[in-house]
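step: validate -> pass
step: tokenize input -> pass
step: predict -> running
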Amino acid sequence: MTGKMDEEVLVVPRAVLLASGPFTGMRGPDEAVLRVIRDRGVYRRRADVEEDPSLKQVIPYVVVRRGTEVFLFRRLGRGSEARLHDRYSIGVGGHIRRADGDEGDPVQAGMVRELEEELVFSAPWTARWVGVLNDERNPVSAVHFGLVYEAQTTGEVRVREEGVLAGGFVPVREAVRYYDRMETWSQLVIDGLGWYRSGD
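step: predict -> pass
step: emit ->
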């Protein structure tokens, strides 16, 4: 765990990123937000920012779809984040590292790296940005800011770290039945995408 906490991750001053005011929930994509992240983002040691409310750690959060199905994750008891054990999720993601910006856009590179570190795809996939995510309700989520992506594929997908995550494709209408047992970001994405209303 020490190694991860020594990583330098992309952060943006809260006052700049949330200049129009803090909010809780998922909103649609806003190019102005990406400009702020790219123009005003800096890298800081993760251990130094985990409890610093003046900075927002930028987290690409990817929902994987296959037609009308979504990849549903369950976090197992062997992961490093004890608060999430046995919680369900429809998203996977993580911090943007300094090295992600070495050959271009750090946001795009970080999203791709995180997705491919967690999952193995049997067929090509494409991703589109569908929104931003913020949660001010507790000290942990209040220091993070999500960029929500939807990845589409036609093939099979499996998790790499089978001792940490389990998962598979299920119809969206089935996934939402786990809503009350999901991590809060997944709940906010389901609300933001209107899956309770549409069912697909």
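step: describe -> The mean pLDDT is 91.
step: cleanup -> pass
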